[in-house]
From TrEMBL:
It comes from the Eukaryota. GO terms for cellular component: nucleolus. This is 25S rRNA adenine-N(1) methyltransferase. Coiled coil: none annotated. S-adenosyl-L-methionine-dependent methyltransferase that specifically methylates the N(1) position of an adenine present in helix 65 in 25S rRNA. S-adenosyl-L-methionine binds at G119, D139.
Length: 283
């Protein structure tokens, strides 16, 4: 008697998907991701220097290199991979965890807290899924609907308190700015977008995420200098944590500033260190 033929179990739907559905970028290793991001930053810095020197030919050459490497889109893909669950996760989870005690005060009868997420890569991160938060997302190169294509430095200044935000998120944004003066200007500009008119007991808040190397391995910036810069603008550090790659900080805006000038000066000598800096005048 011939053996019974076993009925074939239906396959999973995922197994029928064409290979093209999977992004080739998802296979980027952690090292390749870091290399792509680092190369993009270096090219942006070189282009800024060429622009300041008035070398149009060099600017064109660097622009060609940036495009050959995939441009801003490839940088964003690498950043998304770097923020995936396998590579450290969504940074906005840390923000929400830190302000959770205040968010617990929120009730559905109250207005939502307005969040400005600069350099947004997703509309599905933790802060976007938090009921008490209303998130406005902007980025230089919007990757999906719900993210406005806009440069924060060119965003019109708010004319009313209702156009301001209770929270501003700069997650891996300040390090993308190619020159030290521009970084200082970005931090100063944040103050103009914050409001203290909050329905719960949350002060105006700045969430800042930087690569650890920016503060630990720079010739021109230390964590102490970063604290001094933000304190001069009226910010008070309330939370901080580190991973092997990133430093997360939560700053409350006090409204009490003491304008100072911070120049590019040697703070941490060493030939293997980087040149990340923040320059700020008193104005």
């Amino acid at each position: 008697m011939p053996p019974k033929r076993r009925s074939k179990r239906p396959g999973l739907l995922s197994s029928t998907r064409p290979p093209t559905v999977k992004s080739k970028h998802a296979t980027l290793s952690a090292k390749a991701t870091r290399t792509l991001i680092r190369s993009h930053h270096q090219l942006l810095k070189a282009r800024t220097q060429a622009e300041q020197a008035g070398d149009d030919a060099l600017v064109s050459s660097i622009n060609a290199q940036i495009e050959a490497n995939g441009g801003l889109e490839s940088y964003q893909i690498a950043s998304k991979i770097g923020q995936s669950g396998e590579r450290g996760g969504d940074s906005s989870k840390t923000l929400v965890d830190w302000i959770k005690p205040q968010l617990n005060e929120w009730k559905t009868t109250l207005p939502k807290l307005r969040v400005l997420e600069v350099g947004a890569l997703s509309t599905k991160n933790v802060c976007s899924r938090t009921p008490s938060l209303e998130v406005s997302r902007i980025d230089l190169n919007s990757q999906e609907p719900g993210i406005l294509k806009q440069d924060f430095m060119e965003r019109p200044l708010p004319s009313t308190e209702e156009e301001k935000f209770h929270i501003i998120s700069l997650s891996l944004v300040l390090n993308y700015v190619p020159d030290p003066v521009g970084r200082g200007d970005m931090l100063k500009r944040c103050v103009q977008f914050l409001t203290s008119n909050c329905p719960i007991s949350l002060p105006p808040t700045l969430f800042l995420v930087l690569p650890v190397a920016c503060v630990d391995n720079s010739r021109y910036l230390t964590e102490e200098r970063l604290l001094a810069i933000l304190a001069s603008l009226g910010f008070h550090l309330v939370e901080t944590r580190r991973t092997s790659k990133l430093i997360y900080q939560l700053w409350n805006y006090t409204g009490v500033s003491s304008p100072q000038s911070f120049k590019k000066e040697m703070l941490n000598p060493g030939h293997k260190r980087n040149n990340f800096a923040i320059i700020m005048g008193e104005s």
